[in-house]
Every structure is written in C-alpha cells, then in structure tokens.
Amino acid sequence: MTDSEPFLLRFFAALIIPMSDAILNEQVASHQTAGTKHHTPFEITKEIEKQADQRIKNYPQDRKRSAVLPLLHIVQSEFGFISPEAIEWVAGKLEIEPIKIEEVVTFYPGLRQHAPGKYHIRVCRTLSCAMGGSYELMDKLCELAGIDRSESNHHNPIAVSPCGTWSVEFAECLASCGTAPVCLVNNDFHEDLPAGKAADLLANYK
Amino acid sequence: MGKITYQKSKQPHPREMRLIFRNIDREGWDPSLKTFLADGGYKELKKALKMTPGEVTDEVKKSGLRGRGGAGFPTGVKWGFIPPNNQKPVYLICNCDESEPGTFKDRYIVHQDPHQLIEGMVISCYAVGAKVAYIYIREEFPQAAEIVEQAIEEARKEGFLGKNIQGSKFDCEFYVHRGAGAYICGEETGLIESLEGKRPYPRIKPPYFPAAMGLYMAPTIVNNVETLCHVRHIIGMSGEDYAKIGTPRNTGTRILCVSGDVQKPGYYEIEVGKMTMGELLNDLCGGPKEDRSFKAVIPGGSSAKILRCSDKFNVSCPPDTEKREISFEEIPLDFDTMAACGSMAGSGGVIVIDDSRKMSWVLNNINEFYAHESCGQCTPCREGSTWMKKITDRLVAGKATPSDIETLESVAYQIDGHTICAFGEACAWPVEAIVDKFRDELMAETSEENEALPHNCEEEAQRRYLSSV
What we know:
Chain A is α+β, with helices and mostly antiparallel strands. Chain A has helices at residues 4-28, 46-56, 68-79, 84-94, 98-107, 127-132, 134-145, 198-203; strands at residues 119-124, 159-160, 166-171, 183-185, 188-190. In chain A, a hairpin with a 2-residue loop joins strand 4 and strand 5 (188-190). Chain B has helices spanning 33-38, 43-50, 53-63, 75-80, 105-112, 114-128, 142-157, 188-195, 225-237, 239-243, 277-284, 335-340, 359-373, 379-396, 402-415, 423-437, 439-444, 457-468; strands at residues 5-6, 26-27, 90-96, 130-137, 173-178, 220-224, 246-247, 250-251, 253-260, 266-271, 294-298, 307-308, 312-315, 324-327, 349-354. The interface between A and B is large, with 42 and 52 residues.
C-alpha cells in the first residue's frame, strides 16, 4: 500500500497538472473577435515604457504593486484589451507573479480580455437611466449597428458588431442620473440620450 | 477677467445656497488655475498655512462637518483617530469613486472645479500631516482624470503643491489613481486594497480602521470629494461661522442629486435641514410629471431604504425635541431626521419613483446592480445578492409564487449584518424596505399556480425527460 502511494501521486499529478495548465491558459486567453482587426497588436514601445515608469514612480519604491491598475490602463488604452502577453509584461515590470495581475484583470468590469469594437459603447442600465429609457436605447443601438446581444451574459458582457466597428455593453451607474439615459463611447461621455437620438450618436463616429 | 455669470438654464434656484457648486455651470468659468485665482482661489490655503495643523483640525471639528460620502461621520473626529505617537507616513485619499446609483455630485466638481478640490485637499493634508495624497477617480471619468492631473500640474508650477508650499516648509504631493469600474472601491478599505494593487476586498473593522492601519498599513484618511471641498470653505469663514449654516449637528450645505420621475431633475445645493422633502420635490424640482403623482422616494442613493410618499412618520424634527407626526412631504432634509424616519441621507442621491412604475421592476433593477457589484468575499452577500436577483427575475416574468416573497425577505435579513463591509446592508436594505412597504403590490404579481413551474435547471431537465417518455 505504502509503495503504491508515490506512484498514485505521480499518476494523478500527471493527469492534473497539464489539465490545470490548459484551464488556466483558457482563462487568460484573448479570443479573436470581429473587433480584433481595429486594434494594434501588443508591442511595447519606448514611449509606453516611459509612461509606465512614470506611473510606477507615483508609489513608494517598495510598493510597486500599486501600479497594477495604472499599467493595465496604459495597455488597454493602447491595444484595446489586455492580452496574456500584456499580463506577463505588467508582471515583469512590477516584479510580481503574473497570477497577481490576472486576478486583478478578472475582477474589474472596466478591464477587458477580448477586443471590443473600434468604438465601444457602454450604456448605463442602473435605476435612473433605466427609468429614462436606457434599455430602449440599447435595443435601438443594437438594431442600428447590427449587433446580436443574445449571447451576452455576466461573464461575456461585450457584444461586437460583425464589421467590428461597434461594440456594446451595459454598464452599472455612470454617475449622471440627472441627465438619464447616458452612455460612454470610448472615452467620450454622452448624456440625455433617448432611443430617438441613437442614430445621431452613431453618425458622430462614422 | 470679466464677470462670471451662470448659464441661463442652470441658474441657481433662489432657495438654494451655493457654496461648493458656486462655480458649476457658470458662464465664462473653466477648470484652469487662472480662472480660479481670479475668483479668489487659494486664499484659504494661505490662511491655513499660517495656522498650526492642530488649529486647522479644531476649526473642522468646530464646524461640525459630517462626511458627505454616505455614512455622515464627523470629519474632524475621523482626523483625530490618527495615533498620536505615529512614526509612519500619513496618507490622505480622496474618494472620487462616485458610484452609488442616484449620486452625481462629485462628477461636476472634478470636471469643472478641480482646484477647489485640490485646495481643500492641501489644507486637509496639512491638518493631518500627510505628505502624499492619492485621488482615486473612477474609471468611468476618463476626462476627469486628465483634468485633475492637469490641475495638479498647474498648482505645482505655482507653488500650491510640491516642496515648501507658499514658503511654509510643508511638502505635499498629489497623484491620480484611476479605478476600473468596481462599486466596491467606494468602500474605504476596499479602495485602499485597490490602491495597493490587489482585488478590492474590504478589510474587517476592527482592527483595520484606515486612520490607524490603512494604505500600506500606515495611518490613512479617506474622505469624499465634497467633504474635502467643504474644508476649504470652513477655513475661509471659520468653523464657528460654518456651523451657523444649516441646523445644529447637521451643519453646512449639501448637494442633493435628484433623478427619476420629476419635472426638473438635477443637482441642488441646499442648507442641511432648512428645507423639507416636499419643498425640494415640488418647488425646486417642479413636481411630478404631467398626470402623475409621486409613489416612493429613495432619499440617499439606491442602498437607502425607500420611503412611501403616503406615509406618516412619528419623529422629532430639529430644533424641536418633542416627537410629532409628520407627513412624507414635511421631512426635513438632514442626516438625523432621515435616519429617524427609517432611511438615511446617505450620499444625497434622491431617486423619485412615480405611480407609473411597478415596484417589482424597480427592485429587480436594484438587485441586478448589487448582484453584479458584490465583490464575492463574504458568502451571504455573494450568494444572497444573486439569489435575490433570481427571485425578482421570476417576479418580473410573472412566474413567482407567494412563498417567493417570504424567501426574498428571509434572504435579505440573512445578509444584513453578516458581512465584512456595509455592502451587505446596502444590498439587503432596498429589498427589506420594498418588500415591507409594498408587500401587497408584490404579492399581487405572484400566483399559487406558479408552484408547479420548474424553478431550477434540474427540475427543468426532469420535466423535459418526463414529457418525452
């Protein structure tokens, strides 16, 4: 019995280890979407290094880990989403294990692992905006941009149009309840947007 | 520089008292330092630097200022919690993770008047002895982060920040830290965890009170944007004079953000306690929409307990100490009476619901928010918030049974008080209050016959199998 234990252990380890690797890789992987072609592939330039070093300096020397979010924001604004290579790069920059970056990326709704469209629209769905008609706005935007949201759920909130130009997502309270409904298109904020103005909104970005 | 006037559409209502929002939507106003200086900016900072840090804290204590982020805790008292024999660096964090549904005041300050915030923060840093401060701005305000960073740069160039501020030998540096869209980062210990680069799981109190063990385990003061702006005005007019605004124990002005079913939603800055709910909704906001009447109001952000507009409350309204019966419209807008009425003044987000809305729909929307935003650290909240969402999903779809309402209530009471941070209460209170006050309406949407419906995937599979054989 005692002799068989190391063997059993090795046997199960052989089964489990490659499997868990596969699961982990699957979790970290960035899938191709229709929007991928609109974003530049991940490549670190001198300019980005400089920006990152500048951000890291904002925190005490022995507390580099604090710069996780600022660095991820740099990556996301440059490349549209956070790829496994980007996670490795941030981990290397901050001298911590990639899993510590991964756990942050998977937590925050504002960080994306897959490419959104060229213009990513976030419509507020919380109470005041919902009363102001944000669900109708979302339906109208999907209709105009040819987006199918039937596959969207909590784990996969972003829906991309077939051409990759547009993507939509419901966001929680964007803090402008007095001018409901509101949305963010990339970094631009738009307020007082009933469904009737959806076409004008999209025309702004063509 | 010409005279600055208000934009026509944004004229302050005569009953408003603009202190913090004095420059918001003013014609000719911009967020630059030049405009701010021409309007008399940074005078209060110079005044504060001539006082000792202890004197500044005393002024804030005398003013009776209470935190404007939600809990209403006295700011001066919070500052006093820093251990007296502290050897570690002290940090100040400005909480600009404005994410409570219904609240939208900080948005205007950081977008339009960033120097007011910076001045308030430098004074606060001086009072608590912080040499580094972080401004935690939510991810959904990308422009605000740029505006504030530019304002910091301008202030540094003019010697209002950095080394030896205005020749006082006091050094202070500010940095902007952007969040990434999580509601829980508005909780102060969650915010600190987020700033440390981890998942923002709130810390348990005690022992992790930020004033003793905060950022990097050093004493940390976390204050809301509006609170820090008030500090500037307290120094300007002295704590005693500030305390004369509003009512005793509920001093100063506060910004109320009205949204939902009213004629004129928007921000209104009023003296705390000097106006009633009815005056706010009917006079300032223009009353209900045409052919509608008010049904219910959430007075302090979506986690505050809902108030029914037809209710009577037996409370004492300051300055009276005697209890008397008042109607919903007579509730004075202050911290204490609102708490006595069974709700809270919270973050000042007033969401108005009229008789065209179904309460089941309102509750489902709120539940979806909390189910999405629960951080997942404590089991009652992580599981409970999604269970409550599933039940109200059924209710809205017309598939709920009367016993579902009881289950909903029991889940809420099992979350309330059993979690590390206040999120548990925040997600349970709306359910408790709406079920309690609108039970008949919710019950009317349920049916005994729905007992026969499958309620989970196992039951559904079973049913499919049975119908196939």
